Batch of 3 targets.
Target 1
Amino acid sequence: MNAGADNPAAPLEPPGCDVLVIGCGNLLRGDDGVGPVLVRHLWERGVPEGAKLVDGGTAGMDVAFQMRGARQVVIVDAAATGSAPGTTFRVPGDELAELPPLQGLHTHSFRWDHAIAFARWALGEDCPTDITVFLIEVAGVEMGADLSEPVTAAMEQVIALIERDYLAPLRPEVPREVTVEFTADGYLRLDAATAAARFPSDAVAAVLRDGALWLIPLRGPRSGGLLLKQRTPAGDRSVLVSELLRETPLRGVQRACWDDEQSAMRIEVPAREERDT
């Protein structure tokens, strides 16, 4: 049965999101794949609620329709302007308002810049007005090559900008001082907001140092370390720390503080005589 049969004029709600990041390019051709590689790095670092990451590949038409209903759009692609490899250009989307000549245009020649203009024409009011494009100058696009060093360095800078300007505002705000819980079975529990704000990739390093247990965020599971496992449907997380605290086991609720200089969470470890009293 057609759900819209009784009301054929019912509008379709756009999927929408607060921030859409699209990485364009060909992963098989060296530096041309910087957009999709960047999206993969962002994914490993943790995607806040309200953000969406898309590997746009080389399908410009798909890019146009992915933008439907998004509040802000960031597009990342490679460039070949003759500038020094790794040079980064930040281009406002409104500079790309004109449709390309339609004669001879087909899916294989339909690029991201065409996609922006096409989206304005095809999506109407559902097309975002806040669109930013980051272009990274390539060093080489040889088949099967890895990203070059200058392009990798530039990609990290763009990742930092996207995190600061677009993703960080979507992450929950938590105070510097919070509480954590050490369980009898050797786990450390974090509430959902603290985990999402401080450890978005769900991967951490745990270190005993200076009378404290330090939890250090990692970029993702491929970085090694310990995994924060989802413990509740609400998003509370837990990490197994019993091996690290074998000589100094902790139980119950403890105070923790975020250290901006170390970019890590510090949890005081009471001396044994304090714990025994």
Target 2
Amino acid sequence: MTQPLTGILPVAPTPFHADGRVDEDGMRRVLDCLIDQGVDAICILANYSEQFVLSDAERETLMRISLEHVAGRVPVIVTTSHYSTGIAVERAKAAESLGAAMIMMMPPYHGAGLKADETGIYEHFRDVSDAISIPIMVQDAPLSGVNLPVPLLVRMAKELENVGYFKIECPFAADKLAALIEAGGEHILGPWDGEEAVTLLADLDAGCTATMTSGMFPEHIRPIVTHYLAGDKDAAYDQWRKCLPLINHENRQCGLRACKTVYAEGGVIGSDHVRHPQKPMSPRTKARLLELARELDLTALRWGK
């Protein structure tokens, strides 16, 4: 990449057959559907890809399939998070060797009580940065329960060669983004939004330049970012208001299941199966999801038909 990534960089869901096996052909169709929606990059093996229910062998297979199938059509961001620094290093090196444009990492944690301190976090990212030559995006998400203070993030951006992108999805994300941009200046290559764009308008006001949502409807969320960055805030706001009911329902009621359900409804994938202990959404929640999706005439609802 010669220019910082901006726009929309959705997380690809991992499709499973109804019996729980990874659907390799479905993965290829997911990637094609996302590219047809005009995305600026695709992220794989993230939390919304159900990375926490995949075996190491499945991760390797999905990474290889995804990078080979996308074949440079858009940049691919590979999530390589792990509590072990050594494993995180090896995952990052493998991603780079297969053609990843960037990696995404959460800080090292394992449950509520096993977390690295600030020195350990810095060393974790330092060791990965030293092992590869592609950019690293730091994911600051509530799931980890790890506090990532702005001074620590700025220090990593200034001192670690490959750290320059930050997905901020903690509470009060906009204020943290603004503080990060102010303190980090030119070292903050990508101040990004997350949380399925539920805070996107405020985050754009704070200076974010991209959003990493689910893959459910990037063709409708991308214009919010592009209009805003082009200076047309009224158009961005109008598009935001149009998308907000579906954004809210996905974020607050459905979670990672939403994208898979829409993709299955539209024939992109054959099943919206989620692996146990995740459970299917209720018929009530699903009905509202599909009603809101149809109101926006989502590409994914007709892509495979």
Target 3
Amino acid sequence: MRTQSLFSLLAASVAMAAVNEPCIGSGGRAGVCVSSATCSSSGGVSISGACPADGADIKCCTKASCAAYSSGNCRWQSDCAGSSASGYCPGPSQMKCCSSTATGFGGYSAPSFPAVGSCKQVSVTGAQKVVAAFPGRVRQIYCIRDCAAGATSDHCVGKAIDFMCSDAGGVPTMSGREIAEWVMNNRSGLNVKYIIWGQKIWNPSVDGVKAWTSWRTMEDRGDVTQNHWDHVHVSFN
């Protein structure tokens, strides 16, 4: 059961995303970055400036209602508290017509935490604090990656956590924004090095405290997971 407010988290937001990936569009609704023609042909509404990392004709498309259900609305399937139907919404297959007007994210069982060892104590403690702050919102936790120490990722040395917050890997969600901003606001107690969510990065050594919409935009890495639309990455000192 998804209990956190969806539209209160999305309102008055702007996101930079790759084509067919999430954005925040008209009315603060969850949207998808597609061409104006694709949006129009699907009965959606486009706004400019919400997908500025892409070409001029790629805009954030939203569709407030869809005909699969009497109260149908278009959103990412992972964020739908009811049934979802394909073929009624703009964008890729994971943007579907949702039967429920309920808002919110998550509803997952508590994830397992990695043991302290290769995964460092600071990471495990940070993971526990985040999960406690957002019960039901984190589906799975990853710490160690199979890479040599000294490589660029903090996962290699056990100083990073991926908080998976959608229904599956590679499945987009808008859930991570609230988690990412909470980590930023609690950076000192968590000993945060940097945060990545939704193709944006925040680093306390160079960035002031600000809304996720004003975080620095990262390059398009080519898919939902690498662009961090299914998980929040937190690196620790």
